[in-house]
Amino acid sequence: SIGKLTIKSSIRDKDIYIISDIGNYSCTYEMFGFTNHKSPDDHFQDVIRAIGAIRNQSKSISLVMPLLYSSRQHKRDGRESLDCAVALQTLMDKGVSNSITFDVHDSNVQNAIPCSSFDNFYPTNIILENFIKNEKVDNNNLLAVSPDNGAIKRTNFYANMLGCELGGHFEKQRDVYKVVDGKNPILKHEYIGKDVMGKDIIIVDDMIASGESVLDIALELTNRGARNVYVATTFAFFTEGLEKFNKYYADGIISRVYSTNLTYISDELRNSKWYRAVDMSELVSKI
Questions:
Q1: Burial state string for 150-168 with b = 16 or more CB within 10 A and e = fewer than 16
Q2: Nearest CA among 192, 234, 239 for reference residue 212
Q3: Residue 173's beta-bridge partner residues?
Q4: What is the rounded CA–CA span in Å between residue 132 and residue 138?
Q5: What is the value of pTM for the model shown?
């Protein structure tokens, strides 16, 4: 329960693995007459409680956090918090000797804890296996497209693994005179790359938040004559719901979205015709 954590089994001289999905908003608790959904901050505090309950009795503590806490707040720009680095330092100070995560937004964040082990794994092969098995695409007619400059290296790796061409990338044009939700809003996505007429496209990224960007990109590619548009991503949150994705699928603008089950997937999302969940449980257990 929120506010207290008790370990009832003996953990003396054992290697402890704490597994936490900080994106699991389906967990709820009652307070002041309201039903509250757990935020990433709530989950992170529960991890701290678990470490505190162990009280140095275990042989070692490893934290498996597939979606790294506050990983998008990994660098400082001006007078702002550096949440991910501070969280990693806090965990190390509390006794965590090894942090295990997947496809961290910026692997350089591990420099915040140079004296602690930090393992960052990638689900690329398993995502590709699922994509190849289910879609039966012709690699000679497939292009890999990057949604921005930051994902070009990742997209090129996917292209090499699939044996297809790297099609190009999108440049984001932002309104520098406005700030919405802490960011300059995107005015348009400009495509730079090869002709996509009649081609199947796979868009590659590390995560989908609201999904507005990837849908804008899919629409632009469809307007340029792309036949099918697929999306492959490690994490998919859909923070603004699924309604627009359902519409774009019905309109033939987007064909399929592949993402892992390394963070919570709602029943509505799992049952969507355009969505495929890539099961990572076997890889996590092997790690």
A1: ebbebbebbbeebebbbbb
A2: 239
A3: 188
A4: 10
A5: 0.89
Cβ atoms of 63 and 18 within 8 Å: the answer is: yes
How many contiguous H segments (helices) and E segments (strands) does the chain have? Answer: 8, 13
C-alpha to C-alpha distance for 121 and 158, rounded to whole angstroms:
16
Structure token pair of residue 7: 């370990």
Q: Which two tokens stand for residue 267?
A: 């029943």
Q: Which residues contact 228 (CB under 8 A, 6 or more apart)?
A: 137, 200, 201, 255
According to the 3-state scheme, what is the secondary structure of 89-132? HHHHHHCCCEEEEECCCCHHHHHHCCCCEEEEECCHHHHHHHHH
Query: What 8-state DSSP symbol labels residue 184?
Result: P
| Interval 22-72: pLDDT, tens | 999 999 989 889 999 999 999 999 999 999 999 788 999 999 999 999 988
Which amino acid type is present at position 3? G
Under 8 Å between Cβ of 102 and 66: yes
Amino acid making up residue 195: D
Q: How many CB atoms lie within 10 A of CB 35?
A: 8
Torsion (CA) 26, 275, 125, 133 in degrees, nearest 10: 140
